[in-house]
Amino acid sequence: MDRYNLIKGKNEREIVLLKGSPCVWGKCTFCDYIHDNDENEKEMIELNKTVLKNVTGELKVLEVINSGSVFELPKETLNDIKKIVEEKGIKKLFFESHWSYRYRLDEIREFFNVPIIFKCGIETFDNYFRNKVLKKGAIFSGPKEVRKYFESICLLIGIEGQTKEMIDKDIEYLLKYFSKGCVNIFVENTTYIKRDENLIGWFQEKYSYLQSDSRVEVLFENTDFGVGE
User: Fold this and answer.
1) I need a labelling partner for 83 at 20 to 30 A (CA). Which of 14, 103, 189, 199 fits?
2) Which candidate, 89, 99, 81, places its Cα nearest to that of 140?
């Protein structure tokens, strides 16, 4: 399992994949990423300390991800990250958060006292597909409400049952309302959710221009950020 990488090109930054406690939601039908969480806090803290030792601060930007939300990282790990921010001169942080934590984001901002971009996995703005098929547990009125809390979102593309119209609307909203975004091409895993190869091929052709858009990162594999397995 790779847990550290230096990302060059778009949005240059260091990235670390840490361990946290179980995801507050943990019911998404497409996700087996939650298997990377743990309940042994001592072991999580020690592993996270080892991973964080790789951070050099050379890009002054650090992204921290885990199999859930930043709020599920141990308190000691948050303190370790804060020490690195101060010692390495980190000027900006990226964290992940589930929609259910949207009212608590300022707790993290105040703790670290540096600019933070929170990424939220919206997956799609189609309410039925998001909550009934993917079981995301994120209920909102539309992109304007999401933008009140998050400036960066993640979309999921290429699942059986999705339509071109749904994807067109998702990309439209991403580019119109958000300063940053990540588009994840679905990779089959241990869940029962299946890829739609035709839909993915259509997306790659129609939205190839996103590769040169500085706001958007398109991931064709789960490990495209250089972490995970």
Assistant:
1) 103
2) 99
Locate the domains of the chain by residue range: 4-219
One digit per residue, the tens of pLDDT, for the chain of length 229 reads 899 999 998 899 999 999 999 999 999 999 987 778 889 999 999 999 999 999 999 999 999 999 899 999 999 999 999 999 999 999 999 999 999 999 999 999 999 999 999 999 999 999 999 999 999 999 999 999 999 999 999 999 999 999 999 999 999 999 999 999 999 999 999 999 999 999 999 999 999 999 999 999 999 998 889 998 7
Burial of 158: CB neighbours in 10 Å, binned 0-12, 13-18, 19+: buried
CB 146 within 8 A of CB 122: yes
Question: Which 8-state DSSP code applies to residue 195?
Answer: B
3-state secondary structure of 116: strand
Rounded to whole angstroms, what are the CA distances from 42 to 21, 38, 53, 71? 11, 10, 17, 17
Class of domain 4-219: alpha beta
Residue 17's Cα: distance from chain center in Å? 11
